[in-house]
Amino acid sequence: MKKLINTPQTVVADALRGMAASHSEISVDAEAGIVTRSGGKVPGKVGIVSGGGSGHEPLHAGFVGRGMLDAAVAGPVFTSPVPDRIGEATAAVDSGAGVLHIVKNYTGDILNFGMAAEDADDDGIKVETVVVDDDVAVARGEGAGRRGTGATLFVEKLAGALAETGAPLAEVAAMARKVNEMSRSFGVALSSCTTPANGAPNFELGDREIEIGVGIHGEPGRRRAELTTAADTVEIMLDAILEDLPEADGAPVLLLVNGLGATPPIELYVVRAEVERILAGRGIRIARSLVGNYVTSLDMAGCTLTLCRADEQMLQLWDAPVDTPSLRWGA
Amino acid sequence: MKKLINTPQTVVADALRGMAASHSEISVDAEAGIVTRSGGKVPGKVGIVSGGGSGHEPLHAGFVGRGMLDAAVAGPVFTSPVPDRIGEATAAVDSGAGVLHIVKNYTGDILNFGMAAEDADDDGIKVETVVVDDDVAVARGEGAGRRGTGATLFVEKLAGALAETGAPLAEVAAMARKVNEMSRSFGVALSSCTTPANGAPNFELGDREIEIGVGIHGEPGRRRAELTTAADTVEIMLDAILEDLPEADGAPVLLLVNGLGATPPIELYVVRAEVERILAGRGIRIARSLVGNYVTSLDMAGCTLTLCRADEQMLQLWDAPVDTPSLRWGA
């Protein structure tokens, strides 16, 4: 294992200390794994909390700030944070308007966020939960259901922007659920990731093999295939996504071309060009897009694509100002 | 070689098409490798042009926009663009106030930008050139001199911000030279990069080996060492930089923690934390910092560190608004 880390035991807290040093707009408790806005809670605003296992940076801590999250809770690598920490973050951001939990669909996260929500309710904090399950590589209803991946960014951005307008909890939660329902993702890997604790790749790929339909926790994909062109790879990914993407009266899409950690910008932009070409050929308009490392899987080479059908309100929420370590734009 | 590309011959144009699709603020001629601001030339403003071989994305095209570059010229992977293309970009951004060429110190770039500047002069366009040579892994005066790496971003940002105020060419060029003089960089690699044309790594590293003092074109470093902690690795890098960094009356520094392409955010933030700790121990204040993939070397794992001593004017120029694909912040 070759990584720029100190020890597997300290990697999460060390990285959080690095984030704290870099970004004065967030306040970081590196040992507890809790990141909040430095300004403290926003009076009258619905609080938005997300979190999960680490190893997906900048998700979630990089999205804490005006227009997006109020708090992020970072567990150990690929392991859900404990309910107490989620509860602390929930209490820290509740200003009386209630709190939305944005939870990726993994068993541990569902369980721990669920317990934290119950405890918060006992303490008089109203919590709504939205579960993100956008990964079409998992069949609907299979096992624990579809995994949450790239759509998490869209849910956090759009629900975050709506909360910033002072919208009530039910409305913010409804938007979060709508964004998830309108989103589909699919990933391919050119290499496995290596967790610091294991020290060896989760799976092995041959020199000319890629893994089709991977998750973001080192799970193997649905099948292996021979390495092919970016054009053919993107076609496989978009076929899987479009088969399942809601039509929504031909609304345009938000697009995320997401690097899994070890794929450089030059390749992500080649992928972006192929997505443009293929979607244009199928009459789908890309209204907004992002290209970069947003929801990583440690040092995995590869990428995920996420499409989200977006109506006019969703586009406006996308365009609303955001000021976080990893997403930043003005009005 | 495992890459998300179509062919080695088309990778640069394909990636530029992806950038064009993603970023409406830039105007891209993918075949010519020329990227300009979509608004066209800015009347009365000094034009700023940079460029060089591709494989370092988002450098340079990702830095075209208000507050930074007026044009970027992308050559083939790791190969300087030809003088004619540089000349086209120079003519495209000259509004009569002259043009600054920001050139990384590599033989091909020096030669080709030099020829383009002469031709521009013949056409009545006044050109000043600043050469960026910040890499302390190369001894001063050795061979072709020090390589240009991460400081290029600082030069482009600060000279870009000054040009935006309407400052004359001589002043913008003087600032660019000052930023370069105040900057020092050093890189380490955990893996080699693989150029699409070669298809095999430029050098091979053992499972526990790292390369100390690498450049951004797959050159081997000054020496090999055994993989160690992030803390020890950062200490080696900062020792090399600080030995050569101007004191500048104890002025604070700008810091760039730059990923070389295949190193994920979690590791870059661990490095950021170690830089904070070590510099604090040596009484050096980090006034501003960036963490991410800004000056990559294709799919190389590793990072570079750049420090730049910054006076009050330089900090103000850093904070000035910038609106480019890869750096974006408001006033």
What are the defining features of this structure?
2 domains; 331 residues; homodimer; 14 strands; Hypothetical Protein Tm841, Chain: A,domain 3; Rossmann fold; alpha/beta
Task: Please give a structural write-up.
Two copies of one chain form a homodimer. Chain A has 331 residues and is an alpha/beta fold. Chain A folds into two domains: 11-181, Rossmann fold; 183-318, 2-Layer Sandwich (Hypothetical Protein Tm841, Chain: A,domain 3), CATH 3.30.1180. Chain A has helices at residues 11-22, 83-93, 107-122, 151-164, 169-181, 230-242, 265-281, 312-319; strands at 26-29, 34-37, 47-54, 71-77, 99-104, 127-132, 183-189, 209-212, 223-226, 253-259, 286-292, 302-309, 322-323, 328-329. In chain A, strand 13 (322-323) and strand 14 form a beta hairpin. The mean pLDDT of chain A is 97. Chains A, B: Its EC number is 2.7.1.121. Chains A, B: It comes from Streptomyces indicus. Chains A, B: Keywords: Glycerol metabolism, Kinase, Transferase.
Give me a quick take on this structure.
Chain A is α/β, with parallel strands linked by helices and 331 residues long. Chain A has helices spanning 11-22, 83-93, 107-122, 151-164, 169-181, 230-242, 265-281, 312-319, and strands at 26-29, 34-37, 47-54, 71-77, 99-104, 127-132, 183-189, 209-212, 223-226, 253-259, 286-292, 302-309, 322-323, 328-329.
Q: What composes the largest sheet of chain A? A: 6 strands, mixed
Low-confidence runs of chain A (pLDDT<50, min 5 residues)?
A: none
Counted up, domains of chain A total 2
Estimated share of beta-strand residues of chain A: 15-25%
Radius of gyration of chain A, in Å, reads 19 Å
So what's the CATH class of the largest domain in chain A?
Alpha Beta
Give the neighbour order of strands across the main sheet of chain A. Answer: 1-2-4-3-5-6
Q: Characterize the quaternary organization of these chains.
A: homodimer
- The CATH architecture term of the largest domain in chain A is 3-Layer(aba) Sandwich
The helix-strand sequence of chain A is: HEEEEHEHEHHEEEHEHEEHEE
Given the helix and strand composition of chain A, which structural class is it? Answer: alpha/beta
Q: What's the end-to-end separation of chain A, in Å?
A: 44 Å
Mind telling me the CATH superfamily name of the largest domain in chain A?
Dihydroxyacetone kinase, domain 1
Shape of chain A: globular
Mean pLDDT of chain A: 97
Q: Pair with the most extensive interface?
A: A-B, 62 and 62 residues
CATH fold call of the largest domain in chain A: Rossmann fold
Number of strands of chain A: 14
Pathway (chains A, B): Polyol metabolism; glycerol degradation
Enzyme class (chains A, B): transferase
Keywords (chains A, B): Glycerol metabolism, Kinase, Transferase
Organism (chains A, B): Streptomyces indicus
